[in-house]
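Batch manifest, entry 17 of 40.
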Amino acid sequence: MLFENKVVIVTGGANGIGRAIASSYAEEGARVVIADVAKEDGKKVEASLNKRKKTATFMETDVRESTSIDNLMKKTMDEFGKIDILINNAGVSKFKSFFDLTVDEFDDVLNTNLRSVFLCSQAAAKKMRGTGGAIINLASTRAFMSEPNTESYAASKGGIYALTHALALTLQEEKITVNAISPGWIETEDYESLRTVDHTQHPSKRVGKPSDVARACLFLTNPLNDFINGENIIIDGGMTRKMIYEH
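Output type: structure tokens
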């Protein structure tokens, strides 16, 4: 129970990677706040994690809105009195023709993925001052390599990578570590339907699972690992180290 009595906020915690992260912290004894705009899904995760012992609280949150984020932090402090760990996981993608992508669509991706990391980190860090804490930002391997027509998503994830090391330096005097995780292909839906080639193209010989990312969050926020700061860990089965040629 490594994180017993720790208070952890997971944005986008109602589904996919966020749900796995929330579950992992709950299993390690933390009190987990599931912050998500998906109310129905968030309530389901809350109920599932609270079957044996109350470990999770769902708080409806739209990370695009500063007032919603401020409300999340206030409610967390009112209920638990502190914030120890923030996982900035919430995100959306918009893969659309570069020539057709609208300004509003581009802005929505950046506001959800990137601006939210700034706003949530700023709000949480104000509560962590004096006691310390840890922040993890979910970036992506798409911050460093791309496919066509992924401009808004790539820009948002590249921004998260840069924001992470900037925050690590800014918050050093507050004893708040800030790190990023850049997942590659993490299958969040039907893992069993994946093809053999999907797995074998990875040097690790399998597609990633949400639990792979969750374990990295536990590692990086372990107080014994506070010498890791301002870093980005790529979790992609080795794909970004692979030279790919057409034969």
